[in-house]
Amino acid sequence: MTSPSSQPQTLSFSAKFDPSNPLEFLSKAFKLVAQRSNFLEKNTAEKEIVLAARTAKETVLNEKKDRQVKTTEEKKKVALAVVEKKDKEVETNEDKKKPQQNDGNGMDLENYSWQQTTTEIIIIPPVPAGMKSENIDLTIKENLLKIKFRGHSPIINGEPYAPLKSEDCFGCEDDHGTTYIILTKQQKGWWKSLMKGDPEIVISKLEHDYPVPDPETRGEMTRIMVID
């Protein structure tokens, strides 16, 4: 007679699984095994069951660990991407704040913008709210340039890049309210910066020499008095 365990059988097994009491499910499974085989009668049955349980436990723990590692790595990637994005935004904002060489052969700085030809410097200072060009005080000498609006700190105060022809320097305002400070250089040539110690432009990028504002516009401007 063939023993229950000698011939493979396909059996259906139905049981409810309660996560709060998994041993009840295992007990029913062992009962089925006992009914259909001699496995539990073996001397090594208990050891084999413990080994199977241990193997299953290790598999579950390893899979859980792998998921945790994967989740941690994904979180690190997301965090790194966020940091890189913020770094790029900071770099972009810092680049925007950095002085930029402009198309007028000069530079756009935080407090003002300046342009140049080989003979002149043209400064375009921002006019504070409620101020007009007549509220600006100019002190222009050979080696001194000071520009300030009354009641405000000086926009510029120091030594220019090279000597000025002070008698030919002046301030003016156009019909649109834009204020210009026009400085005449003692010697013809390009300046790397407006003031000594300021950020410098790249001279090799200068390709043209044009007056700003143009002569026709200058003739219609209102002059600003220079203070000696």
TrEMBL record:
Residues 86-108 are annotated as: Disordered. Its main location: cytoplasm. GO terms for biological process: protein folding; response to stress. Signal peptide: none annotated. GO terms for cellular component: cytoplasm. Residues 107-195 form the CS domain. SUPFAM superfamilies: HSP20-like chaperones (SSF49764). It is found in: Cytoplasm. PROSITE patterns: CS (PS51203). This is Nuclear migration protein nudC. It comes from Cajanus cajan (Pigeon pea).
